[in-house]
Design goal:
alpha/beta; Monooxygenase; Leucine-rich repeat, LRR (right-handed beta-alpha superhelix); 15-stranded parallel β-sheet; F-box domain-containing protein; F-box-like_dom_sf
Length: 428
């Protein structure tokens, strides 16, 4: 082991590279050893991808804020905060570019965002106590925003929502309605006036096929007025997420406008086999490489012949049969990522056939599913596999896991522990 004095003689860039592999708790231990290492651990390069979670802001002193400022913290998540506390945070962390408010937002708190002139990402997870007029009047001030998420928001009409067109740099937009409806004309208006928009998430439980399809059709008044934002002729979305939807499908014109999609997520979706919806997605969206079906109705497509470029498939908390998995292997022969966490409906013999059905798999997620020791051994034959999630599996013994590591020479990263809870979503 290298003596302490030799550690301190290493170049700073070498120490920073080593510290980059440490967890926050490990960094805190190193930081407590001496003034020199404390200064190094506070270097901004070690914290540039970190999000600080504040559950209570009032308990922190000036030294704490000075430490965060020296680290140039740019991302925070805040819960239970007063306007005075929020102003303290924004004045102490002028470099903030991303703010998530995981609490019930009020209009006065939104006003506290104004000093954040560099804000690029804003996520409000509970807008039930603030009107849409207040929300959009404040958000319109941040024309540099690239990511905007609004959950549990109530729409009073068309006009407030249309002010989003002022955010011409918007790349990602999430609108999760409190009542399950979004004004379709307003949504259509903004989608065709945000030329940089690539990601869209909608929670729209009460919108039928035709209302939702209208959002993805070129507005009738295509020629815009001089003072209006110009209207684009085609959408360029790469990612679409539909939550709590009862919409069975989309119109042909809508699919045409969505032909650039690379990723589709259907969460809490009620219809997966109506009108051959899954097959239609794979046929009408030629660029699709990722399909996510999470906590939805049973995934039972009609299983007709389909040529697909699908590389990632996630079927979480949903019933999926042996026959469907076999159909997927024929339709998506180049599948690299398969997530079956919390899913059911297939048996262990199907799992044992994965090396033949999905020979190109690099990531396989089987968290909270039944996996036998025999099936685990067979999965060692997935020679491209690099990550295997077998967390929360009560049927695997430590001896079986150790044997698997020996068989694979530790080339596969095993995920053995994960909180027994679903992924955190801002809307259900």
């Amino acid at each position: 082991m290298m003596p302490e004095i030799q550690w301190l003689q290493l170049p700073q860039e070498v120490l920073l590279h080593i510290f980059a592999y440490l967890s926050p708790a490990e960094k805190a231990n190193v930081r407590a050893t001496c003034t020199y290492l404390r200064t190094l651990v506070d270097h901004p390069s070690l914290w540039k991808n970190s999000t600080i979670v504040f559950k209570s802001i009032g308990i922190f002193n000036a030294r704490f804020w000075d430490t965060l400022q020296s680290r140039k913290i740019s991302s925070v998540e805040v819960t239970r905060v007063t306007l005075k506390q929020f102003k303290k945070m924004t004045s102490s962390l002028p470099d903030l570019t991303s703010v998530t408010m995981d609490s019930c937002v009020k209009g006065e708190i939104l006003q506290g965002l104004r000093p954040l002139v560099n804000l690029q990402q804003l996520h409000l997870t509970d807008c039930t106590n603030v009107t849409d007029q207040d929300i959009f009047s404040e958000i319109a001030l941040f024309q540099q925003l690239t990511h905007l998420s609004l959950c549990r928001v109530s729409f009073s009409g068309v006009l407030p929502l249309t002010s989003i067109v002022l955010l011409q740099n918007l790349y990602s937009l999430s609108l999760h309605s409190n009542e399950g409806t979004v004004p379709e004309r307003a949504l259509q208006y903004i989608l065709f006036r945000l030329p940089k928009l690539r990601e869209l998430s909608l929670a729209i439980g009460n919108m039928n096929k035709w209302k939702l399809s209208l959002c993805f059709n070129v507005p009738d008044n295509f020629v815009s007025t001089a003072e209006d934002q110009p209207c684009i002729s085609r959408l360029q979305l790469h990612k679409l997420e539909l939550i709590n939807s009862s919409c069975a499908s989309l119109s042909t014109n809508a699919f045409d406008q969505l032909s650039t999609l690379r990723s589709v997520c259907l969460r809490h979706y009620k219809y997966l086999q109506h009108e051959e919806f899954i097959e239609t997605l794979l046929l009408k969206l030629p660029q699709l490489t990722e399909l996510r079906i999470e906590w939805a109705a049973p995934f039972v497509p009609l299983m007709g012949p389909i040529s697909s470029k699908l590389e990632k498939l996630s079927v979480v908390g949903t019933k999926i049969s042996n026959a469907t998995l076999s159909w997927i292997s024929r339709s998506a022969s180049q599948l690299k990522c398969l997530n079956l966490s919390f899913s059911h409906g297939y048996d262990q013999e199907m799992v044992k056939s994965f090396p033949q059905l999905f020979p190109h798999l690099q990531n396989l997620y089987l968290s909270n599913t039944w996996l036998t020791e025999d099936a685990l051994v067979v999965l060692a034959n997935l020679y491209s596999l690099r990550v295997l999630d077998i967390s929360n599996n009560l049927h695997l013994t430590p001896e079986a896991i150790l044997a698997f590591r020996k068989i694979t020479s530790n080339r596969i990263g095993l995920i053995l522990e994960r909180p027994i809870e679903s992924v955190k979503y801002c809307c259900w």
